[in-house]
Amino acid sequence: RNDSVVGGKSFTAVAINCASKAGEWIKTKLGNYASLDMKYSSHDLVTEVDKGSEKLIRKLILTYFPDHSFLGEEGVEPGPEASAQALRNARDAEYLWIVDPIDGTTNFVHGFPYFAVSIALAHKGEVIVGVVYDPSKDELFIAEKGKGAYVRGRRMQVSGEDRLSDSLIATGFPADDSYALPLNMKGLAAVVPKARNVRIAGSAALHMAYVAAGRLSGFWEIGLNCWDLAAGALLVRESGGQITDTSGRPFDLGVRNVVASNGLIHDELLATLKSAEAIG
Ligand code: IPD
Ligand code: CA
Ligand code: CA
Ligand code: CA
């Protein structure tokens, strides 16, 4: 029996279905949410749309796969300690769905159309399916372990730039500003003069999908969580890119300080961050 197909539904098909349903609904709420709350800091926002998206996805996934485990951002107490603990509690599950119901909430709140739904499935701690959906552009990024990654049905391939000076790079500013913000600022100061330019567009999942698609050559950020990264990491890897922590160790679900790239500029980006003492 093929374990990835249950009741006629493949894992990937369910991930796609959830991401598109949630994404379409989120899009109708753009600039039209009802309640806005702060979580960990004044930079850490949540709306009823984040919660509603997570609820919709959770319900659909558990309908198809009632034995699977589920880890979604809005089901976890805010802050880095609680997030790390939630992952430790969940990561040994045979099948674990890792969901960011809106990656880019700040953009969503301001009507800036760059946010995504991120859904990953890990088998015994290893990501085997990753789907990132950008409803504003109706772009669906899909990766299956060992089977490549696709956008709009076309196989993705990372970019060919082999120098930082020819590369467009992205980064982000996390909600946990006490620890991560100073490090990200140092990294930014070091990378901006060396790279062609740097973008801070506000969705880690989309930044990684863009690395996979060759639209960016690299991305780094300090202080992320597994729901920001799990799907994007598989997209990058399956498109021929490299994904590590800031000390160069290969990605796993516990990584919070991430560097994703086309592989060719990876060492230069790591070295630049290291020289600026921006690696955490
Ligand atoms: C955030 C986004 C943002 C990144 C932050 C994340 P959220 O996720 O990915 O780009 O800079 O670190 O927390 O809260 O919008 O899901
Ligand atoms: Ca959030
Ligand atoms: Ca996120
Ligand atoms: Ca989120």
Q: Would you write up a description of this structure?
A:
By secondary structure, the chain is α+β, with helices and mostly antiparallel strands. The protein folds into 2 domains: 5-155, Fructose-1,6-Bisphosphatase, Chain A, domain 1 (2-Layer Sandwich), CATH 3.30.540; 164-275, D-Maltodextrin-Binding Protein, domain 2 (3-Layer(aba) Sandwich), CATH 3.40.190. It has helices at residues 11-28, 48-64, 80-90, 105-110, 177-194, 204-212, 226-238, 266-275; strands at 5-6, 9-10, 36-38, 45-47, 69-72, 95-103, 116-123, 126-134, 139-144, 149-151, 154-155, 168-170, 197-199, 218-221, 242-245, 258-261. Helix 1 (11-28) runs antiparallel to helix 2, helix 5 packs across helix 8 and helix 6 runs parallel beside helix 7. Residues 50, 73, 100-103, 105 line the site of one calcium ion (CA). It is an enzyme of class 3 (hydrolase). Its cofactor is Mg(2+).
Features:
globular; 2 domains; Inositol-1-monophosphatase; metal-binding; binds D-MYO-inositol-1-phosphate; alpha+beta; five-stranded mixed beta sheet; 280 residues; seven-stranded mixed beta sheet; D-Maltodextrin-Binding Protein, domain 2
Quick overview:
By secondary structure, the chain is of the alpha+beta class.
How is the secondary structure organized here?
Layout: E1 5-6, E2 9-10, H1 11-28, E3 36-38, E4 45-47, H2 48-64, E5 69-72, H3 80-90, E6 95-103, H4 105-110, E7 116-123, E8 126-134, E9 139-144, E10 149-151, E11 154-155, E12 168-170, H5 177-194, E13 197-199, H6 204-212, E14 218-221, H7 226-238, E15 242-245, E16 258-261, H8 266-275
Parallel strand pairs: 5-6, 12-13, 12-14
Antiparallel strand pairs: 1-2, 3-4, 6-7, 7-8, 8-9, 9-10, 10-11, 14-16, 15-16
Helix pairs in contact: 1-2, 5-8, 6-7
One calcium ion (CA) is lined by residues 100, 103, 204, 228.
